[in-house]
Amino acid sequence: MSDCIFCKIINKELPSTVVYEDEQILAFKDINPVTPVHILVIPKKHISNLNEVEPEDEATIGKIYTVIKQIARKEGIAEKGYRIIVNCGEDGGQEVGHLHFHILGGKKLGTKIV
Ligand code: AMP
Ligand code: ZN
């Protein structure tokens, strides 16, 4: 997807602060952090959002959760906890059309989701 900013980040056409990378997955710091730790974890394959996940993506999506666990430990937020958010579509507040998992942590978050 040539006009996707996260694909450009994957292809290193746009800069980012990478915290994890393997063949299927990239994680980088959110450019506009809303918590002390705010990292985005994405599949390298362009998947627009959760509605577009296919059975062939199951291994990658599953691995994203073990990557999240590793990142949380490395960032020092594993024990105190953190929140994972995946926005989907207009009502879900999704602004970038490439599936991404927000890791939010480093402070005590409220109990309300909306
Ligand atoms: P969402 O509203 O779930 O689509 O979230 C998109 C997120 O991408 C926001 O938290 C933005 O701050 C973040 N973002 C947008 N552009 C960049 C970028 N170039 N590098 C890092 N994060 C970005
Ligand atoms: Zn993309």
Features:
binds adenosine monophosphate; binds zinc ion; single chain; 114 residues; alpha+beta; HIT family, subunit A; globular
What would you say this structure looks like, in words?
The chain has 114 residues and is α+β, with helices and mostly antiparallel strands. The protein has a single domain (5-105), classed as HIT-like (HIT family, subunit A). Helices cover 21% and strands 22% of the residues. The protein contains 2 helices and 5 strands. The protein has helices at 5-10, 58-75, and strands at residues 18-21, 25-29, 37-43, 82-85, 101-105. β1 and β2 (25-29) form a beta hairpin. It starts with a helix and ends in a 9-residue tail after the last strand. The structure holds adenosine monophosphate (AMP) and zinc ion.
